[in-house]
Amino acid sequence: MVKLTPRQKNWIEGTGAHIGTASKKGMPTVIVVDKAIVENDSTIKFNLSSKQVELVLQNINENPRASLGPGGIGSIRAAYQFKGKASIKGNDLRIEVEEIYSTKPGPEAGLRLDNLDYNDILKFEASRWADDGPPR
Amino acid sequence: MKDALKIVGKGGAVVHLTTSSLDGNPNTVGERFISVFKDEYILIADMFAQKTRVNLNENHIGIITLAHPVNGRTWSFKGPAIILQEGLPSDYEFEGVKASEVLNEWGNWAEKEPPSEVPPDIRPPVLIQRGVITLKVNEITDYSPENAGNIIKTEI
Hints:
With 136 residues, chain A is of the alpha+beta class. Chain A is built from four helices and seven strands, in the order H-E-E-E-E-H-E-H-E-E-H.
């Protein structure tokens, strides 16, 4: 089971995310949400506007796969991509994270992190970034 | 609307690029090396974007969302996309643009636009570029929560 690190949680909760979904035939749709809450270490919850629900509901009903990266300056300072299974109840979108990747440009682009030992993920983060989340 | 595109390529901007496999596995990646080409195309340096490449090889569609600085520019750019790189036939064209034109200008991003303003802790140690992700903008929509999906402009 995937467990988000404190740094990953801080960035996602602090900056929200750009969230990609797609139809079964591969037509993507993106919504951008400013805030998020991480539940149970691996589920990210977003509260959507009605217009955002309209945009992604059909995709998620036919194909629950979703991808997301931190928004704002997190897009580059927190170079992660999270992938997982999306579900919608009312205006709440929940994504159960199943995969985490580094998106640092260069040799570590696409490096899968969630299959490392949790302590090794923490070491990876500490050796590459000086922050533990967005500026407060 | 040309101005909208130019802001995407302004120094310091950051975007997310979303692509999808043909069977609907989306991929969303933050991108820092961005420019606008001929007012209709957005270019991104391909620095070994692994899944983006796999997706664009089978499904030529992408969405670019502006991440920073936003300041009311909650814009999403959608259109056909591909990766252009050296080795393509000399007359290769994609959606009205010649690969050679794009590569002559942006094939060496580090030389054309050195990433001097990128802070050292997030700058790649060496800028190794494989090609240029090229998206022809066919549609611009708003992504703000209250107007999500509203078309700002089509057929630029």
